[in-house]
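## retry 2 of 3
previous attempt timed out at serialization; input unchanged, resubmitting
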Amino acid sequence: MATDKIPFGSTTLVSGARFRPHGRVDMMMENDVLQYEATGPFNAEVFDALAVAQADFLKSLTLAPRWASICTLRISAMASPEGIARYTELMQRAKPTAFEPVATAFVVASQVEGCKIMAPHFAKIYTLIGRPFRIFETMEPAQLWVRSMISQQPTPL
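## retry succeeded, writing output
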């Protein structure tokens, strides 16, 4: 991940987990798109660390009224059953309106371990929370899609 893009947040900056998080999620804001780079496989503890790191990161920003997120998965998309359950639980929690993107895209190349196995799990989570979601193999179509989703949303009052 490029370190010249500031501000930056990461699950590696969160301490205090009882068990070591497996996986890593880094994040940075590029205009009105929150970019995540997630390197798996993942356990429940990394999603707990993500919840803390993301909240701290978003609080440090002045967010656009409408923004979206793109998560690029690297190496492995696999998550333990406990990890998926925890991610589902965290995603279903109420969040401040400003902290809700209008859409989320995942970029998962076909060579990422478990991409086809995990795709339905991630799609189900986003369906449960009612957020537009798509998975792409490359970044360019993901960026085009989230840009179209941002432009379709009315400006909040």
